[in-house]
Structure formats: C-alpha cells, structure tokens
From TrEMBL, chain B:
G proteins are composed of 3 units, alpha, beta and gamma. Keywords: Repeat, Transducer, WD repeat. It comes from Zophobas morio. Transmembrane segments: none annotated. This is Guanine nucleotide-binding protein G(I)/G(S)/G(T) subunit beta-1. SUPFAM superfamilies: WD40 repeat-like. Gene3D superfamilies: YVTN repeat-like/Quinoprotein amine dehydrogenase.
Amino acid sequence: MEPDHRDHRCHRPSAFDKMEGLVREMQDTEHGGVPVRSQKLFLTSIPAAFMGYDLIEWLMERLGIEESEALNLANQLCQYGYFFPVSDSKNLVVKDDSSLYRFQSPYYWPWQNRPPDNVEYAIYLAKRTLRNKQRHGLEDYELEALSNLRKNLANKWDFITMQAEEQVKLSKVLKKGDKIISDSQERAYWRVHRPPPGMVTSLEQCPVPTRSWNGSRTRKRTIEDCRRDVELLKNSLSRTRVKVSQALEGMVQHVETYAEYDPLITPTQPSNPWVSEDTTYWQLNSALVEIPTEKRVRRWALSMEELVSDPTGLQEFTNYLRKEYSHENIRFWMAVNDLRRSAQSQIQRKVNEIFEEFLAPGAPCEINIDGKTMEKVHQEMKAPSRFTFDAAQEHVYTLLLKKDCYPRFIRSEYYKNLLATGIQPSQKKRFFGFGQTKKKTSTSSAPNQQLLQQQPSQGATVTCGALSKRRGSDRSLSGSAHELAVSGVKDSKVPHSHSQSNLSDIPYRVKKPSIAIVAGASTSEEVCPWESGNEPRSRKNSAQLDSGSSSSDISVAVAEVSERVQRVCTLTQQHTVDGSRKLSTSTMDPPRRASVSVPITHSTTTGDSSKRKVSSFEDNSSAATSTSSSVFVIPSDTDNKAEECTSTSKTVVKNHGLAKACSVTGANAPIISVSSVADDLPVDSKVEEEAEATCSQQEPLAPLAEPDSESPASELPPSEPITEVEVDTEAKSNDVCPWEDDNPVQAKTCSITASAQRTLNPP
Amino acid sequence: MNELDSLRQEAETLKNAIRDARKAACDTSLVQATASLEPIGRVQMRTRRTLRGHLAKIYAMHWGSDSRNLVSASQDGKLIVWDSHTTNKVHAIPLRSSWVMTCAYAPSGSYVACGGLDNICSIYSLKTREGNVRVSRELPGHTGYLSCCRFLDDNQIVTSSGDMSCALWDIETGQQVTSFLGHTGDVMSLSLSPDMRTFVSGACDASAKLWDIREGLCKQTFPGHESDINAVTFFPNGYAFATGSDDATCRLFDIRADQELAMYSHDNIICGITSVAFSKSGRLLLAGYDDFNCNVWDSMKTERAGILAGHDNRVSCLGVTENGMAVGTGSWDSFLRIWN
C-alpha cells in the first residue's frame, strides 16, 4: 500500500484543508490579504496585528457573503485557533470593530500535529511559573491543572522542569517583539487545547478515540477480502446503468409532484400546529381517521405506494376491494408484510397460516399466482423464514394489485366519493365566520395555496376568455400535482414545462365530454351510504363562485361563467384519474326543491400550441326536464359560433343581474351550485378533469350560484379568446329560468368553498 | 506475483472500467436537467420550540413515526423522549453507559434504541405493562463503537459500527442475523430505504454503500467524497440518497444511474457536515454543520436556499419528521430546536 501521509498524525477532517487554504490567503499580504501591521494602542505598539473589521471586510469581499455570515465564519476560524484576539486571552470571539487579532503560527494550527499531551502542557505551565509573574502569571484554573499534573506526572517532573528551564533560556535570546508574538501564540494555542472550564472548544472530537481511515488502523486485508472486492466490482461493472438524464427526470418529477405535499414548501392547512398552537392538523391527519382530508385522498392517486403506506388509505383500499369481492390479494399482501415484521418465534406458525389461507389448493382465500411463483413458494416453504412469500408477494403486488386493483380503485366511484367528501381544512375554518353576505377576502388564515394556484390555472386553460389578458398561470399549473399524478397513471409523460400547450398532450381527452350533474334525483349505487344525507359535509363542499368583473364584455362573462363552472366542479373535487367517471353525490332533500342538474360538457381543445383552446359551454338547462331538476349543459366544441355564445352570455349576465349579484366592484357572476349529483360523468379533457369532475353538493335549496362580491383582483381574466362557442339556443331560455327562480334562494346560501377559492385568486 | 497482488491489480482494472461505464451513462448534468424548474426562493424557517433538559452535548436525535415525539441522546447519560409540541419530556431514561452516540425510535413507537462507545445496542421498551421504561434487550457483538442504528420494525434493527461493519439483529433472540462487511473504515451512518428492503451506509473510507438487507450483500459502492462520510439519507423516492462529509460537501448519488449527481458546497463553507435530511418532497436538503449552523439546500439547483442559525455549538444531529412538517436539530450546546 502506498504510504499514507496521514499515518504519522491522527486523521483529520479534510474540511481543515479548506480552512487552511483560506487562512493562508488571508495572510498573503502581498496579494490582497488582511492588512497586518504594528498597531498603536495608546502608547504601546502592538506588533503583527490586524483589526476585526478589516478581517470581516476581507471575508465579505473574498467570498461574496453577508456580514453576519462573515462574522460567523471568522468566529469559527478563531475558535479553531487560526487567529486570536490580542488583548483577550479568555474569549475566542471576533468582533467587527477595531479590536486587534493576530494570526497563529502554522505550527500551532489544529491538526498540524497530533493533539498535545499532558507532558507538553505541564512544560508550558511550568515555564510560565518561571517567568515574570505579572505578565505570565497563571490563571486559577491553570494553577489547579498544574498541581494536578505535578501529582500525576511526579515521576517525570524533573524532566518537565528541565525542559521548561531550557525553553525559558532559549526565549531570552529572542527580540522583544518576537517574544511577545510567540508568547501570545503559544498561549492562544493552549487556550484552544486546554480551554478554561465551561468554555466551548471546537476542536473537541467525538469521544471516539480515533476514527480509522482507509483501514490504516486495521486488521490486514486478507485474500478473502480481496476476492470479495473483486467479485463486487465485477458485479458492479456488469450492472445496467440508467442514463443520468433519465434518473434526473424521475427526480425532478418527484420533486414537482410532491411539492404540494411538502409542508416546508407549501404551507399546510388548516394551520401549522407549531406556529398556531392549534392541533387540528394532527387530528385531521392522524394515522387512522374516519374522513381523511381531501388532500390526503388526492395523494393516494399519486402512486400505489402512497396509498398503502397510509393506514387510512390501506383501509379504504381494502374496504373497496372487499366490496368487489377481491380483497384476498391485499389481505395476502398485508399478511406477508406482517410476517416480515414478526418475531422469529412466530415465523413458522405464521408461514403455515398464510399458506393455508391463501396458497394451499382449495384455500379459503386462494390467490391467483402463476406456476413458477408457486413453485418458488413451495421451495421456500421447506425452510420457512420471514422472506418465504416474498416472491409471491411481489407477484401479487406488481401484477395484481398495482396493475389492476389500484387503477380500478382510483377510477372508482368509491374513490371519487372519498375525494368529494374529503375534509378541506381551510374551508372548514371559513365555515364559521362566513355569512352569506359578501365576504371580505381577507386571508388571515393562510389559504390553501395549492388550491389557489390550481384554480386560476384551470380557469385559464379551460375558459377561453375573449380577453387577451392572461393570468400567468403556468406556474400554478405546474404546481398541480394532481395533473402529474393523473398523467403518471396514464403512463403518459409528464410535461415539465407546464405551458398550456402541453395540456394538449394529455391523453384521454374526449372530444365531447359532458358532465351531467343530475339533481338529487340521481339515485345511485355509487353513493356512499354514509355520505348521503350528510348535511354538513355537503355544505362544505359546496362551492361558491365569485363573480367576475364588470360584464360589459360578453365574452368575459362567458369566460367567467365557464370558469366558474369549472371552479365549482373543482371545488367539489372530484379528481379522477380516468376519463369516464361517475359521480354521485347525494342531496339530502331532493324532492323539495329544484336542483339544478347540470350536464356540463367541456372540451378543451388544444390542438397545437398555435391553436387556442376553446372552451365553450352550452347551457342546456331545461327547467322542463324535471320539475325538480334542471340541467345545465356546457359543451364545448371547436365549431361553435361566437354569436351564439354572446347571446348566451347575455342571458347569463342578465341572470346575474337578477340574481342580484351585484357587488360593488361589478356584476357578480352567478355561482352554480348544484345540489345534486351527476350520475354519469364522462369526463373529457384532462384539464378539466381536475376541475370538472364534480358536482358540488349544496343544499338543495340553492341550486344556483351565488354572487359574491369580490375584489376585482379576484376576477379571473380569461386566458384566451374564445374562438368559437356553440350554444344550445334552445336551451338558452331554459337556462335562465332556473337561476332566476332560485335567485332568492341563492342569495341566501353561501358557499364556503367558493370564498376560500376566491381569496386564492391572485390579482 | 502472488495471488493477493494479482487480485489487487484486477480490482484496479475493474475500478477503471467502472469509472468509464459511469461516465458513459452520464449524459447530462443536474443543472441542465433542472434548468426549467421554478426557483424555490428563500426558505426561511424559525425556531418554534427549544427543548431544554439535557445537561451535556446532544449526539443524536430521531423522530417518531407520529411526527411529534422524538428521542434524543446526550452524553449526560440520558435518553429523553420528548413531546416536541408541548416540549414535555415523555420519558427520561438513564443509560448504563453515558457514551452514547446514536439513538432510534421504532416505527411502532413502542421502543427506542441507543448505543455508543459501549459497542452495545440497547433496546428500551417504552410500553411495558408496569408502565416504566426498561431495557428489553441488549445486543452485544460489535467490536467497535455503535455509530448509528435504525429499526426495521419491533423485531429487527440495523446497526452500523466503528468496527467497519453493519449488522441486522433479531431483537427477540438478541442474535446478529446478518453482518454487512465491506467498508474499509468506520461506518458512521446508515439510512433505510423507504421500502425497508435496502439501506445505504456512509463510512470513513469516504464511500457509501448500498446493501440488500435480506441477502446481506453490498449491491453498489459510491465513491466520490474526499473524507469521512458522517451522514447519509435516502431521497424520498428511494432511488437516490444524499451524504454529508468531513470534506465540507454534501453530495447526491443516484442508485439507478450508479453515480454522483450533484455536490452541495460553497466557498465559505469550510467545516464538516454532521447530519443530513431531505424534506418531504426531496426538494430541500437540510444539513447540519460543525459551524453551528444548518444550511438548507435546494437539492435540484444545488443552491443554498436558507440557513438555520441559532445553536451555540456544533449541530450534531438533524431530522425531518415523517410528514415533513418540522425539522429537529440537536447540538452540542445541549439543546434541541424545532424549526419550520
């Protein structure tokens, strides 16, 4: 082996190389180091010293850092003993003033030699006792140390005093200035290595005697070791390496997807318990909860791992599979997990139990694995261990659960319902102080940023407002983890630049999607039992949309409306992974009032980036459809005509007026609150998906939207001009009706969510 | 030429071949790949709690899986389990050896483990029938100090040691199940992968190694650092990990690409790193330094995004809660701080 230059001294961290490099630069006065000279202090002249602020300035300039950091760095170096205060032998502190400091001689730098031993310390102390009491007198703690040393080193004491005398003699030869410097340096050295009691020393190492470096301390490497190394290296050489670009892509994608779920980046809802002292967050997010938060449910769609690593997620997943009569797989998976974590003594028993229950021919919950895996299991069964079923588990996990059950779960009504009923902490908070009146958009409690960001972006993409004004929504889009997740599921590439044009790449966009929101009439298998009739919850989810700006511009109005619709949808949050989804929300009181069932068809077509997105909606609400329910259809089509659109929008606007949604700022747009549920929502474009999917459940009484007074800032500027909008003319008149009818009602209902949303919109 | 020499020579050629293979896979840089990423801006975190109670240097801390309790080990010979929100001490456990260097909280919350210069990993049961805390198992077997330990579950724990090995233990029987040999320096730190099937270790031989827990074999070796690796932590997706070293740099290694992706360093950072942890998303890399500070790195841009200043001595340990809500730091100044 090559001789290790570290062998003769103890291993030192290589950070000290960097420190020494810096200190050498400081001392290099010829090339702009720290100015060192004799400093006059009153009548005495102090040789070879520099001032604190010179040092700080030098550091700031050299490293381009702020003063506080430079000060910290200077103190650090001082603590390590690279320089020391001239007039203070106790405290190793650097101040940014005219106080004086002196560089330590490299001989005394840390790690230049092995740490000093007690004999050297004794010599040093003894030497000082031999010298001028006034200048070299010992401190109390040093006296104590000296007497201890004299006791402990009694057999060497003659040698020590001899050495001390010798050194005193030598030092007498020196010039006065040099003597002062070398004395002070020696003293500073011992200040670092034998600090006064209670003082911090940076040089103190871990209590570990020595760390061994590169085997310097070690047993000899045997031939076996070398053989093993070579074997490992061979394996290592033959392994396949993913390209760095690919690895990085995965990493970037992960970071972007999870930014929303990273509390250090995105503030949490309802509040951070560390800041607010309010522990609601923990209550809402404990391991097993009855109703998970919406955000948490959304995270389950990111990956199977996210789902099963969350106890509540695993429980819901199991419940879902149980309903489908296919939960033997997940049960097997859990059983094997449990086995892996079991105590050794129980392994044998558990292995047998699992085998009997899931794998034996004719087992009660036989799982379906291929012959090869089965063979492996049988082989492993001969010597049962906690890993016996690993192969089978892997098979079940990747082939059955991950590829089949999980996507079905995420697409299912069951999941959608979870999402729809998920708690939205920020909204909950708002619920209390919120009357139906116009709420101020004060966001005292931090609004859910994610939501805020997301909304506008969706609005931007979906709506094609006529205005050329655009919100910079790209960013928010990127923030939408949901989109990423969705696309992830679909195996589509996630676009990294989140420009709208990318949206066009999103798969499974249906050209003619329609969201039908059916009024309470929708009965449904899909409705979760516990969900129906749950009044408070539905209220929470009800969305209220804020009104946009003055409606003189029709297209704006249209845009607003459509956006609003979107938003409503979004608020209710159905995020589904899949194109076709069914939503069902139940209203509590279907018969009572007319609820609006709104089949909304949005399609956003973004052909090319050059092509604008068109979102049009068609209002198809026919009051006539049913007394109790009205349908509101907003289809979007590329081929629509602008005029029609205008007419619709006009009516819409009118309605708003009727709805008396005027706020100070301008006409408010109506909020569409749909009290019912959509039975069958084929969803189309992915963009909308996020938004669309839902029906907002509201109290049945207020099917329509409520106007809100909003600050103008909250208006959503439509992102793109509408190219063409086709409106169902016939439907038009109908549309109006429901709103008008309900106006009074509407006014009454306030939807909490919407307000929350509103605040979110960036000006 | 004897066999030993020929083996050495073969190893050397293999190393060179591997270096070339890595270079071949390196078709881009982190900076290029993340150019389109939004900058994160300045991350400002404040001390939300200061946990006072230890009387000497704190050497280790570890969050419980509830993201609220944490255990800390100090050279005053105490292990303290804290409720970090109320700052109450849930348990204060006197140790047999005060030279403790590491501690760990079991995922179930039922056990804590610690160890140090006594070369023993001691398991304490927090939930005994009698209600007191007691030693439930001692795991002797390492021939060097215990530098790090992490529970796989209530029955298994992985330890790393100054005897250059890591080990998997069955707690119930007290037996060393697997020994992970291969490092040529003291192993200082280990981090379990999210799926608990592998772990990485960092050692004083300046390399990090990836181990398969079940097989007990080293799967990959990652050279790159110039000095001791003091800390390792997995990237949340389990395909990468970060290291902190005495050479004053943190580095990011990718497992699938089998190489170093990034280095986090700065001219004015000239001290060793004691501990590292990722935020929940992996975007932030937090590192504790010998200069009393913690730096927050934007892991994707390799830029410094913030600094946690407040301790009056070396930051010896650091951890992010499982839910990512808070950062805990422990220092030789005998205090723990909670930040977010």
